[in-house]
Write a structure and sequence with these properties.
By secondary structure, this protein is α+β, with helices and mostly antiparallel strands. It is built from ten helices and eleven strands. The two termini are 42 Å apart. Its EC number is 2.7.1.183.
Amino acid sequence: MAGTVYGLTGARCGLPAVLLCLAALLCANLLLYFYLDALYQEDTNPLSIHTQCPLRHFKVGTITVCTPWLRCPEIRAEVRRVKLIGQGAVKKVYLSEWRGQKVALSVLSSEQYSDDFLHGLSMLRALQSTHVVTLVGACEEDGVFVTEYHPLGSALMLDTILAQDRYHWRNSWHNRLQLAIDYVAFLVYLHSSPVGIRVMCDSNDLHKTLSQFLLASDMRLLANDLDALPEVERGSQGVKCGHHELNGDFVAPEQLWPYGEDVQFSDEAMPGYDEKTDIWKIPEVTRFLLGNVLGSDVIHFHLFQIYTECKRTEPHMRPSALKVLSVYRSVYDSMIESQSQRVRDML
């Protein structure tokens, strides 16, 4: 009898436990659904996370009021160098401090690169937007300009950063595909900018291309190095990225010397090209940004057709950056909807 009573009691106790587990599972699925919905709203609305100021104004760090760009007197008196954090042929970059805020101070390395430095500064001024690092101020006569500081560094550091414990939760296809969308969105802006059709010339290999972008703390991509953005004028002979012969598979076919190995390279004889060189490079940059996270293989499958179009040999046959962006956003939307539907089906 005692055994029978014990069995009945166990059955009564087991039923609430099962119901409790089902309720917990339901709550978990609801939370996941709301998370995905919020993630979708956040990632597809970049203006909600990038604060804008009026023309020639900025705000950085904890500053909440838009401030006019700093000029020579303010930079000389108020910007204090802390340490060197980057160096290239054109400029040196110092972590600096301004009114308690961390900023990046770029200093011309050599007078022989003055034209490149000033071109980069002019592009930085002209292209201020949600796609580009925030300009804080400039002093041309001293060969310096100041921008917002982003401690995560360039896009080259993406895998290293996402491997860290504090950022590992961001190592998902959502965030990685959003970075690819940011990259293509910048190309759209560049190819229809307020200062004409511009080409990314500092992009002769994957490493160089990624080094042109910074990772913001909210894991968004911002164009940073704008030293080589020549303008394509319709009806002209196009542009040329430098005066030396380019090689490799990363650059577009029209950027390679077209007259064979038996003919010595000549800058004068090298034909020009246009913004479609940027389109050719999109698949390789996307593959790096997506990495090997769960879901990346599905994304590549959905993007296969647009990858193929980007790699067409004839430049005029490649899609515009705007078309590529439309496809990327469509794939993002469908992936989110598919994941949300699976959650709804479990409710």
